[in-house]
Amino acid sequence: MIEAQVGKRYAEAIYGIAEANNKVKELYDSLNIVMELYKGDKEFKNLVDHPLVKKEEKKEFINKVFSEFEKFSLDILCYLVEKNRLSYIRGVVAEYLKIYYTKNRIVDVEATFAIEPSEKQKAKLIEKLEKKTGKKVNLVIKINKAIIAGGIIKIGDEIIDGSVRRQLDTVARG
Questions:
Q1: May I have one GO cellular component term?
Q2: Beta-bridge mates of residue 140
Q3: By CB neighbour count within 10 A (0-12 exposed, 13-18 middle, 19+ buried), where does 1 fall?
Q4: What is the rounded distance in angstroms from the CA atom of residue 135 to the CA atom of residue 107?
């Protein structure tokens, strides 16, 4: 609960600063990289979260690890360290993404199929989904052989289940 509140407050402030400096996309990309590292690297997560590691050490580490980032992104990360909020990075990034997606009219769509669709099929699906939603689609494909054939599309809270598995289950229930 606290992480979500802190994340929202900081994400809104950071987005506003990024927007004023015309750095919204750059910061979006940087925060995604930081988030992936935070989720996937235990040492990084431990360093960020550990209360006994001094702020200056954390800032030095961030500047070294993310040296390819532009100064603006590094300054934002160091600001989060200074305010003892880097450990809330998941909430900050999640909220920043929500703001970014809303303002840029982007929607995440998860599509699950029994087999990997071709690039042509993916392009056609994206085109149809963009027409349906009126937004740019960020498509994530998942493979699950248990659905037999067809597909399951998840757009936010809406699920469109056109799988053969669901149809068979419906027939079996009678």
A1: plasma membrane
A2: 110
A3: exposed
A4: 6
Contact 164, 149 (CB under 8 A): yes
Percent of all residues in the chain with a pLDDT value above 70, rounded to a whole number: 98
Can you read off the two tokens belonging to residue 170?
A: 């419906």
Other CB atoms within 10 A of residue 147 CB: 20
Q: 88 with 20, same domain?
A: yes
Q: What is the C-alpha to C-alpha distance for residues 69 and 33, in angstroms, rounded to an integer? A: 10
**Sign (positive/negative) of CA torsion 92, 104, 122, 171?**
positive
The stretches of the chain forming alpha helices (DSSP H) are: 2-20, 24-40, 42-49, 55-65, 71-82, 89-103, 119-133, 164-173
Question: What CATH number is given to the structural domain containing 29?
Answer: 1.10.520.20
Q: Note the pLDDT tens digit of each residue in 119-154.
A: 999 999 999 999 999 999 989 999 988 888 888 999
* Same domain assignment for residues 46 and 112: no
pLDDT tens string 85-108: 887 888 888 899 999 999 999 999
**What's the predicted TM-score (pTM) here?**
0.72
Integer angstrom CA distances of residue 148 from 134, 144, 167: 30, 8, 10
